Amino acid sequence: MFNLTKRRAIIVYYNGRRVLRSLHHYGQLRYASKHFHYAILYVNQDRYDEIKERVQHLRAVKRVISSARPDLDPTLTDLEQTGLYKQHDEDD
User: Fold this and answer.
1) pLDDT grade, residue 92 (50/70/90)?
2) What is the DSSP string of 12-37?
3) 53 has which bridge partners?
4) In a 3-state reduction of DSSP, which class is residue 45?
5) Which three-class secondary structure state does DSSP give residue 55?
6) pTM confidence score
7) N or C: which end of the chain has fewer CB within 10 A?
8) How do strand 7-14 and strand 38-44 relate by DSSP bridges?
9) Which of 14, 1, 6, 9 lies closest to 61, judged by CA?
10) pLDDT tens per residue, range 69-87
11) Is 23 exposed, middle or buried (0-12, 13-18, 19+ CB in 10 A)?
12) To the nearest 10°, the Cα dihedral for 19, 59, 5, 30?
């Protein structure tokens, strides 16, 4: 049977493009921007903290940001409770 592995994105800001070669060793490199000098790296959820620490210590890496997607509520109930978001019906 096919098993899905939980993955999480890491956004890596870098100084030089040479660091992209070493990022391949830590996870799946999905996107690298030449102009804005950032890359999106997908790693397994169980090794996420370990890999994030290792990537932060690479020579050409400026900063590493975690993806907020797993922490967001897909039903938007938090925003409805604060009054920032109202769900509208199509009939209204």
Assistant:
1) low
2) EEESSTTHHHHHTTTSEEEEEETTTT
3) none
4) helix
5) helix
6) 0.75
7) N
8) antiparallel
9) 14
10) 777 766 766 666 776 666 6
11) buried
12) -30
Six-digit token string for 33: 């921007």
Distance CA 3, CA 51 (A): 22
Residue 76 carries which side chain, given as an amino acid letter?
L
Maximum Cα interatomic distance, the chain, rounded to a whole number of Å: 56
Phi-psi region of 45 (alpha: psi -120 to 50; beta: other; left: phi over 0): alpha
- Between the two ends of the chain, the Cα-to-Cα distance in Å is 46
User: What type of residue sits at position 18?
Assistant: R
Nearest C-alpha neighbor of 41 from the set 72, 70, 67, 68? 67
